[in-house]
Prior knowledge:
The structure holds two protein chains of two kinds. Chain A is about 35% helix and about 30% strand. By secondary structure, chain A is α/β, with parallel strands linked by helices. Chain A is globular and about 75 Å long. By secondary structure, chain B is α/β, with parallel strands linked by helices. In chain B, helix 7 packs parallel to helix 10, helix 7 (about 165-195) runs antiparallel to helix 11 and helix 7 packs antiparallel against helix 12. The longest helix of chain B has about 30 residues, at about 165-195. The interface of A and B includes residues 80, 82 and 89 of A.
Amino acid sequence: MAGDAIVAEELTYSYGQLLAVDHVSFRVAEGEILGFLGPNGAGKSTTVKMLTGQLRPRSGRATLLGIDVAREAEKVQARIGVCFELPNLYEQMSAAENLTLFARLFGVKSFNATDLLKRVGLGGREHDRVEGYSKGMKQRLMVARSLVNQPSILFLDEPTEGLDPTSSETIRNIILQERERGATVFLTTHDMMEADKLSDRVAFINQGHIVALDTPHNLKQQYGKRALKAQVATPDGGLESREIVLDRPETASDVRDLFGKERVITVHSEEASLEDIFIDITGRGLVG
Amino acid sequence: MSWQIVRALIAKDFRLFFRNRFFAFITVLALVTYIVIYFVMPRTVDETLELAVYAPVPPPILEQVGAQGLDLEFMESEEQLRDVVASGEYVAGVVFPPDLMDKLMSGEKGQLDVYFGTDTPDDVQDAIVVILEELAYLQTGQMLTVRVSAEMLGRDMVGAQIPLRDRLVPMLAVIILLMEMLGLASLISTEVTGGTVQALLVTPMTIRGLFAAKLTMGASLAFGQVVLFMAVTGGLNQQPLIIILALLLGAFMSTGIGFLVASGSKEMTTVMAWGFPALIILTVPAFGVLAPGTVSGWVKAVPSYYLVDAVHQAANFNAGWSDVWDNLLMLLGFDVLFVWLGIVVLGRKLR
């Protein structure tokens, strides 16, 4: 059985009077993809900063691969890769120069920028200055940069936000390949579909607290509202929607009534999304 | 702190600095301009002073006045004399009363009225007064009463005036160092705003390593340019070790100030907003070298004074270690202060 790659114990951080992260605890197993979801200002970035050694917790402790982050940040940072939400590349350097610089910082002995750039779909553009890259190309280069040291843990912050479908697919494939390699992935995202598709488990954070942490399937089982959605014809030739919530005592009679009394045009079942579950739990949406 | 990491960062910073077309252009242009400014300035000083004279009965001492480096131009009236001096056409005007020689020969005290323009430097006023007094004494054995009182300031440079271009050297050296301070501040603030520093700080690179790289890069860039400038302009012909040490200390000081400017800046505009007042203040001591007597004692509170004074004394007066050690010590103190303060303030921003 795999051990824990990330252990957060009672992590707390405040900016002045504002408590951003409040006694947060969780574990992420080696080789697991954890989707970390929450609206802006929920404490996602602060948590990631504490886990990656950018911020020292006011209280609590984080260990990555068994190493205390606050005490031995350099050791931890040598074994992680971080991909930021906004492009923070050296724009006046080429893609290859950007990657080579970071390979040197990580002390990677034999590094081949071309191979890595090919892997993220930037083969042939390695000597172009980054300032001429599109947003999607920059994002793919950011992902490549986070992989130069073959990290044991990969932190990805909104890696596919605002990208075209091809770029998004490339990045999703890389995430899955990294898991195959044995890396642990800590994926911060607003994209519920992406989190659902990629994550082994998801954690919801709201107002500095982890409010739910489980597999997407279990969360849907636990919090989801299953329903039947139908479109029926009205006497004047129009259409109306009907929704029948499943798993209630009156569900059977509602279904009978629908098909007996109305002219049903379409019908389909509906499963709760992670977004619905988040709203159910917190009373607020994920965006904003 | 790994030196391999520091070396990688320094190489990156130099690459970025020279790929920034603005800074690369400004750096080369400024250096060439300063060198050209130096060489187009006259390398000798014309020590002949032009005097306006009103003498209804020209006394014999006037014949000797010309030999003392004073070029005389006779006016038709005292009023005309006052006008030409007031307009700045002549540095001074001397009125010789018609009965001057009679009084002196009979043993009485004579009196001269000397008028100076408002912009006539104090040392020039003193020189003229002294020459007139000495000439009168030599010829008559009597002291003249000259109706001007002035106090001799600074060194007596009669016969050993420093050419303007050599006086300019400390100012240009300070400007070169401070221009690099602006370049470094801009480079750092761009990295902070662009988030690239954040990316560096999640690698095994420590914040100490980052500052070691920036300090080395900033100081060597400034130092390299200013030494090149001094070498080309002949500023290292006298006391080169003292001057090189002073410039090195100056380069570290400007780097520390660059850290402070960067900590309060987000991009080029704010770098200029913070940097230019600093640049102007730090250039003030150099005006004291350029035009002696134009700055007062408070200039010693400006840290660059000790750099300017050390370079000026060594380059222009061949001053030795015993003459400038106190300047170098003060400069070292300001280095420690500014670098420490810069690291603390900028470090807080980076964290």
